[in-house]
UniProtKB/TrEMBL annotation:
The chain crosses the membrane at residues 12-33, 64-85. The lineage of its organism: Archaea, Methanobacteriati, Methanobacteriota, Stenosarchaea group, Halobacteria. The keyword Membrane applies. It comes from the Archaea. This is Uncharacterized protein. Keywords: Membrane, Transmembrane, Transmembrane helix.
């Protein structure tokens, strides 16, 4: 039977890895959206008032969907953090 301390350390490794990966995915996506490949068209109205864009305006956006980048960044960061923390905490 596996000792409880090992199970708890494994849970901590998974939770911290998830948090690190989520932060990395958000950071990478926010940086990528500011580039020209993910940029929105300059003709779109300013949304400082907080209202969402109309559907007609959403359909004319230029650029790529950053979901794939966020997905890849999350899993790469999760894997790296998991391996690093596993080596540090579990030996």
């Amino acid at each position: 039977m596996v000792p409880l301390s090992t199970v708890l350390r494994t849970a901590v490794v998974a939770a911290v890895s998830f948090a690190v990966a989520a932060g990395c995915a958000v950071a990478v996506t926010r940086l990528a959206v500011r580039t020209r490949f993910f940029a929105m068209d300059d003709r779109l109205p300013d949304t400082w008032h907080g209202r969402p864009l109309r559907q007609a305006d959403r359909e004319q956006r230029d650029g790529l969907n950053p979901f794939i980048l966020a997905f890849a960044a999350f899993w790469i960061a999760f894997g790296v953090a998991n391996v690093a923390l596993d080596a540090l905490l579990l030996g």
